[in-house]
Amino acid sequence: SGLSRMSLLQILLLGIIQGLTEFLPISSSGHLVIVQNVFGLKDPHLFLDVSLHFGTLLAIVVVLRKEVASLLKGIVHFLFYRLRGEQFKIDEECRAMARLGGLIIIGLIPTVLLGFFLRDLFTLFFGSLTAVGSMLVVTGTILWFTRTAGQGTKETGTISLLDALIIGLIQGFAIAPGISRSGATIAFGLFRSLKKEAAVQFSFLLSIPAILGAMFMEWENPLLYDGTLLHVVLGTIMAALVGYICLRILIRMVNKGQLYFFSPYCWGAGCVTILLSFLLN
User: Fold this and answer.
1) Coil vs helix vs strand at 91
2) pTM across the whole model
3) Which of 136, 219, 237, 255 has the greatest number of beta carbons closer than 10 A?
4) Do the Cβ atoms of 173 and 112 come closer than 8 Å?
5) Using CA atoms, how far apart are residues 149 and 146, in angstroms rounded to an integer?
């Protein structure tokens, strides 16, 4: 397969690109497609892509470990006492976390539906540099509009049903390479008047089951049984380390209202990619 032709150095480079681009709002899948095209690897390597996403998933869990732990603890306590009919033992914190868990599930519904019904279209996009370039331009424009987003008033506890559905829908569209998942979901969180911290937290908590789901979908991929498994593991570790650093940087930039700083890069990268598609054809 194309993956077995890739050297360890190339896979590590893809791991670095994944870590950089998953959290900096410039589209990881878009950059992976560009690099794979430049390497002359025309087929989209979904298994490698999913493995590198697992690396950045580890980074999310480490950075948001307190939020993830209290969310899981809240859901477990809530369910445990509900099933025993001891609702009076459920405190406010558990109720809030159980509600947040419910909103994450609701947010996942449009993501899953879009992923299912538009899967063929998204797969087509993975093979098209023109599509990737165009989507990068769209990402840049979405980020640019965050300049006009106000301070936001909603905490994680006051996110509405509609907020969750809209952010989940945007996450679904971000399956298209070139649309930054982190950038688009945080931006729409800000547009929906979420506080900066809440927009980041909801975006990344929503991404955890989405990434796990994508990994599960690709798990039967025959590339898993290639001799390159060790290379893929090392690429995944690289993605996790670089991702951890970049997620820290992103959180700081969102808090300072600097998400739109990435717009010129996305516009430039998009235009170069579209130009590259004509040159490579």
Assistant:
1) coil
2) 0.89
3) 136
4) no
5) 5
What contacts 85, CB < 8 A, 6 or more positions away? none
Give every CB contact of residue 221 below 8 A, 6+ residues apart in sequence: 46, 47, 50
Q: How many CB atoms lie within 10 A of CB 122?
A: 18
Blockwise average pLDDT, block size 10, the chain, 281 residues: 71 89 88 78 65 90 95 91 85 90 96 92 90 96 93 92 97 93 96 96 94 75 61 92 96 95 96 92 76
Q: Give Cα 96 distance to the centre of its chain.
A: 24
In the structure encoding, which two tokens stand for residue 154, read together? 């909603």
Is 174:185 a contact under the CB 8 Å cutoff? yes
Tokens found for residue 89:
């033992």
For the purposes of burial, counting CB atoms within 10 Å of the CB of 79, is it exposed (0-12), middle (13-18) or buried (19 or more)? Answer: middle
* Pairwise CA distance, residues 192 & 91, whole Å: 28
CA distance 137 to 172: 18
Cβ atoms of residues 263 and 140 within 8 Å: yes
The first and second tokens of residue 250, run together, are: 């992103």
Q: Which residues contact 141 (CB under 8 A, 6 or more apart)?
A: 263, 267
Helix (H, G, I), strand (E, B) or coil at 154: strand
Q: How far is CA 220 from CA 12, 214, 250, 262, in A?
A: 23, 12, 33, 36
pLDDT score recorded for residue 103: 96
Exposure on the CB side of residue 20, measured as CA atoms within 13 A: 10
- Residue 99 has, within 13 A of its CA and on its CB side, a CA count of 14
Cα separation, 23 vs 41, in Å, equals 24
To 10 degrees, what angle do helices 263-280 and 28-38 make? 30
Task: Say whether 194 sits in a helix, a strand or coil.
Answer: strand
